[in-house]
Amino acid sequence: MAQTKIGDLINPQVMGDMVSAKLPKKIKFAPIARVDDTLVGQPGNTITLPKYGYIGDAVDLVEGAPIPTDKLSTTSTTATVKKTGKGAEITDEAVLSGYGDPFGEAASQIAKSIAAKVDNDCYDELTKATQAYDGTAGQISYAGVVGANAVFGDESDSTLAKVIFINPAQEQTLLLDSNFTSNDKYPASVIMNGYVGRIAGAEVVKSKKVKLVKYVKDNSTGTITIVSDDTEEEATKKHLSTIMANAIDFTLAVGDKVSAVATEYYANPVVIVDPRDANEDAGADYVAEEIPALSIFLKRNVLIETARKIGVSTEVVGTEHYVAKLTNDSKVVLAKFAATSGE
Q1: Sign of the alpha-carbon torsion through 149, 154, 158, 161
Q2: What is the CA 49 to chain-centroid distance, rounded?
Q3: 3-state class (DSSP) for residue 252
Q4: Could you read off the pLDDT of 69-103 as tens digits, one per residue?
Q5: How far is 124 from 133, CA to CA, in rounded Å?
Q6: Residue 264 in contact with residue 338, Cβ under 8 Å?
Q7: pTM recorded for the entire structure
Q8: Cβ(341)–Cβ(137) under 8 Å?
């Protein structure tokens, strides 16, 4: 006589499809990132991104004179795929009680967990932008976003589509700015796209991933030392994870010292999402204009695996192999706006 076992109630492939379907909707940065699956099914876990140097503008020629030539120069950066994952354990009692859908809930929780990690990585990459605007003299404002936009050096004849990511704590300040257009002024068809409004030509998107920066690396005079996780935290000793929750310097490591920043600020990425380049000249930054600011390189999509603890529970684990990478510096400006007015 055939028996239906608890393990038979899970179809990992179906659950994997469920998680994969949920991910794009849960990642705030998905709309601005290009997903590259070049590495799927290919050996190796590193992709090389070449950049070609500009050969210079053309020059006037004398009749009969040879045309001068220049050697193409190249630079490159690499992106190495990493593995991320999360699991849930479902007891036999939870399954047999008939309360809710524990396996469906597990899939949902795993999707949220992986999405949050991808989101964190995407934001972290954007904060590595080489272009920055110091607006710490005041809070986020129309004038401040205009200043950040100016850093792009936009040569386009028409306005390029941009997005600025803000922390929800900054929304009130924007709502009180007379130049902010909230989404209730938009047509109904636009309200559902995730933007909360527009300011200085940039669509505004809220995300709790946007950091409030409180610490800066300072090995000379810093009063707080980063200690290993097995050391108890105190006023002058903090774990790396504690510091990085409010810092954007990814060179920080255990043993480094940090000090408080002069003015606490939000690190707000302003991103050009237009396929056109801000400079209209690939030679200005050696990156083709169609390359987006942010890319997600996939090696393998979400894989769901299960294992039984006989007579006790079922473990459901989801993993994904990917890496998020800043691929076009010219399309990102990291704007820094004070957390408080200072008044």
Answers
A1: negative
A2: 19
A3: coil
A4: 555 455 566 778 788 888 877 777 777 775 667 77
A5: 17
A6: yes
A7: 0.79
A8: no
